[in-house]
Amino acid sequence: MPPLDKDAGAVSSSASTSSTSTALPAATANTNSANTINTNIDSEKRQPRETNSDIDEEDEEEHDDDDRDTDDLDTSNAQHATSPSREKENGNSNDTPGVLARVISRVSSRPKHFDPGPPPDGGWEAWIACACTHFVIMDTWGVINSFGSFQTYYTQLLGKSPSQIAWIGSFQIFLLFFVGTFTGRLTDAGYFRQLLALGTILQLVGIFTTAQATQYWQIFLSQGVCMGLGNGCLFCPSLATLSTYFSKKRSTAIGIAAVGSASGGLVFPSIVRQLLPRVGFPWTMRVLGFVQLATLLAVNAGLRQRLPPRRSGKIVEWQAFKEPQYAFYAAGSFFCFWSVYIVFFYIASFSRDIIGMPYTDSLNLLLVLNGVGFVGRLLPNYLADRFGVINMFIICGFYAGIAAMCWPAVKSTTGLYVWVVFYGIAAGAIQSLFPAGLTSLNTKDLSKAGVRMGMVFTLNSVATLTGPPIAGALVSASGGRYIGAQMFTGSVLLIGSCFLVCAKVALGRETGKGWHARV
């Protein structure tokens, strides 16, 4: 009601009585309206909020403030309801709508966390994410799996031992896994786009500066450090994002993306084989850089993060290692990755030093090793959706270990090609099944996929950093013979497979399905 005019005393008593009787129903109506809105607000508060499991402290403080405002509103309503004449005296009848407006505004502006629902498990957006991750793995693991061609050239160009040259490639893999610890958490926090852009820049700067390098330390910094950092910013965030688009078809989708390693393993060595003798090392590396530029631009345009950011959380979730299946799986992947890349680094030099193959034929052998990865990455992942990811990982781990133990028996060119086909399928399966199995252990909260994946990546970074140089040191200590490196490769793969069996048993006990669980 508007405040009373100063000349109101001149009005007759009958008019005053009439005004009072008119004001009382109006005040009562305002009170009833306020109580109705207040009841709606209380009802809204009692309804379950559609938020993620992790609600920030700032949101909680906002809810508390809203409750205090509502309590103040209750007190104000009570005062107006019991003393309507006081409204007339003080002229405060317009304050109630003002308080209501503030409370309603705060309730309506309360931030709501977007819930994207369950993984779509298909559709255009999901398969575009799969294709983009394929390009990411092509530009990261494809280059790494092609290091055998660089190993041979660097050994001749720089005059260094195989173990020294291997540090370039192994440090690149080390950074890919190690940086994944931090980029995984940053991905969960919503910085996926920034990581993708940073990784693209580092990757391109690294490969174009490698083209200008002429000394060992220059190649180590450009190809080993700069490209390794770029790999870490690209690989783990992309893989963690892809896993949120699929549930039942997750292993198949990751397998299709992992085929990018074979794609790069065919494209990049082929470019090196054709261009290196003709245009030289600098322009060969520039052509590789242009291929990466085109594919990474497509990745930045097409890959999107599906889940909302999870701002709170730790970089390392130590609680995960208290889960036996997670701890055993981490140990098994460590041993498998400690030795699986030794063949990719040394098969070309082995074919020349022991079998007597020429340089160009040794690169063809590397192409075959990467080419059969198409089968190794697709077929086991397809079967994993039906028989269990960890089950297939165990089979392929023992398969690779037995194949590596048979490596010393290879004495001819034909036998080497046959052996490379068998080992290449198993090695490709290990590389693609590893992330799929890791995400299968984290089905309860996909928002932690980046953190948990990054933790295992850190362990694998130590394995990949030391494995190839250890093999190179064993070759040098044996006077150029490869028997020590071959036995090291096979035995470590078998140990890793045994840890994977322990992970399967622990997971079977937790689910209550026992040994026959499809995990």
TrEMBL record:
Entry GO CC: membrane
Keywords, in A-Z order: Membrane, Transmembrane, Transmembrane helix
Species of the source: Ophiostoma piceae (strain UAMH 11346)
A Pfam family hit: MFS_1
Regions of compositional bias (Low complexity) in chain numbering: 9-40
Source domain of life: Eukaryota
Family (UniProt): Belongs to the major facilitator superfamily. Monocarboxylate porter (TC 2.A.1.13) family.
Protein name, UniProt field: Major facilitator superfamily transporter
Compositionally biased region (Polar residues): 75-84
Start-end of Acidic residues biased regions: 53-74
One GO MF term attached to the UniProt entry: transmembrane transporter activity
Main location: membrane
Domain Major facilitator superfamily (MFS) profile, chain residue ranges per copy: 126-514
UniProt keyword annotation of Transmembrane present: yes
Segments for region (Disordered): 1-98
Localization per Swiss-Prot or TrEMBL: Membrane
InterPro entries: MFS, MFS_dom, MFS_trans_sf, Proton-linked_MCT
Biased composition (Basic and acidic residues): 42-52
SUPFAM superfamilies documented for this protein: MFS general substrate transporter
Organismal lineage: Eukaryota, Fungi, Dikarya, Ascomycota, Pezizomycotina
Membrane topology: Multi-pass membrane protein
Ranges annotated as spanning the membrane: 165-183, 195-213, 219-240, 252-271, 283-303, 326-350, 362-380, 387-410, 416-441, 453-475, 487-507
